[in-house]
Amino acid sequence: MTTSNATKAAVSPGRPGTSTSGQQAKEQRRVAAATIVGTAIEWYDFFLYASAAGLVFKKLMFGPMGPGAATIVSFLTVGLSFLFRPLGAFLAGHYGDKFGRRKILMVTLIAMGAATTAIGFLPTYATIGIASPILLVCLRIIQGISAGGEWGGAVLMAVEHAPNDRRGLYGSFPQIGVPLGLLMASGMLTIMAKVAPGDAFLDWGWRVPFLLSFVLILVGFVIRHGVEESPVFAEIAERAETVKQPIGKLLREHPLLVLVAALIFAGNNAVGYMTTGGYIQNYSTDPDGPIGHQRSDVLLAVTVSAATWLVFTLLAGWLSDIIGRRNTYIIGFMLQMLGVFLLFPLVNTGTLGNLYLALISLTVGLGLTYGQQSALYAELFPASIRFSGVSISYAIGAIMGGAFAPTIAAYLVQSTGTTQAVTWYLAGMTLLGLIAVLGLKDRRGIPLGPDHEAEQAVSPLVGFKRV
Fold it and tell me: Positions of the region Disordered (predicted)?
């Protein structure tokens, strides 16, 4: 199928229920596989750092600062990368709207993998002194820039290739790459904690999962290299209708929409970073803390919860094609609120069974407020500035939500002596996400192609005709 034919088949119809040819369906399956594998590898790298921050880096790179300060600073480096996500989002959005989604995805994949592999070779503070944490922070910044550019391209490749009536499901494929990445990262750390227990894990065991990234990047590169460009962008490029300054147009015409979209993600992301940011892992394994579980036991619990998160993320995408993105979010945030209030009371009992129950309960709401995000974001913004819109909304939401959630949680516990303040913080972020989604109209099935820019420019904000 030629690019122009693929374009007409994929973006011309304006109603849900569009049928696809066998060849186009094959390409859609290839895109689905590429987005799942690529994002899983990207987030494996990203979450591997977050998990290692509390388990490894606080001792090996920041140890001289003392236990309390080292914990907070190590989590600050997790959040630091979020400050550079907007830079990655701005760069990817600008060049993605000008030169295409596919090229950007190749660049972000390579950059993330190179930074992660380099961390695996990084000497500790005991070996090279202050240069060790400085180099670690620099590599984390590269991860942040890559993550900021990755997500927007991956979701648009998935959603813009999808049939109109299955955007939620197809859009959930890059979303499940996130719990898959967490599952892979926690799983590899669990294996190495068993293979190299105790001091051996700190001596060399933690490095193996980072070095494995080099092999995974090669796999991801091969899979992504064979995928066609997004049909929406292909049609824009064919007509020579790319916007010269897409970010300027976005911020000039749609600033409030970007903020509301960011708040929706922040409501999910703050809660999710209790595990993806490594806080629960650190809190429940700290030998000086109230729990004191074995490292391998906690990592296995996080791995299992990542699997349930994956299931509910996929379910959310499928469900949003039936009842709408907005309704799925409302259900999801209500269940997420329940999970937030169960989290620490269950974890603080000190039993492994309740730790599993707490994390699994939390993933129900996390999945149901995440799987539909790709489709929701893609349907919010006009085609010519869509990459910029989804990338920047996502990056801002990540800063507002997950960037410093582990740091805030650690500070609240050290300041108050209990986890109750953390619960109320997470509940407040969940409520903020729910309020934001109530401010949006559902745009399920809206045409995504450049022929419908006027319709896409009508504001989805409740009470607004145009942003």
Answer: 1-26
Quote the Cα angle for 446-450-454, to 5°.
Answer: 65
Average pLDDT value for the chain: 84
- Report the amino acid identity of residue 291: I
Q: Which positions ≥6 away from 405 have C-beta within 8 Å?
A: 79, 269, 270, 271, 273, 274, 277, 279, 426, 429
Q: Looking at this protein, which amino acid is placed at residue 307?
A: A
Would you mind telling me the total number of residues written for the chain in this entry?
A: 467
Q: Which residues make Cβ contacts (< 8 Å) with residue 360, sequence separation at least 6?
A: 304, 305, 308
Give the per-residue pLDDT at 18: 43
The Cα 302–Cα 228 span in angstroms is 35
Give per-residue pLDDT as tens, 313-343: 999 999 999 999 999 999 999 999 999 999 9
- What is the arithmetic mean of pLDDT over 97-119? 81
Phi-psi region of 429 (alpha: psi -120 to 50; beta: other; left: phi over 0): alpha
Assigned token pair, 1: 């199928």
Return d(Cα 198, Cα 95) in angstroms, integer.
Answer: 46
**What single DSSP character describes residue 440?**
B
| CA 176/CA 182 separation, integer angstroms | 10
The average pLDDT across 407-425 equals 92
Q: Name 325's Cβ contacts closer than 8 Å, sequence gap at least 6.
A: 168, 372, 375, 376, 379, 442, 443, 444
The DSSP letter of residue 383 is G
Say what the pLDDT of residue 386 is: 87
Residue 233 has pLDDT above 70, yes or no: no
pLDDT number for residue 21:
65
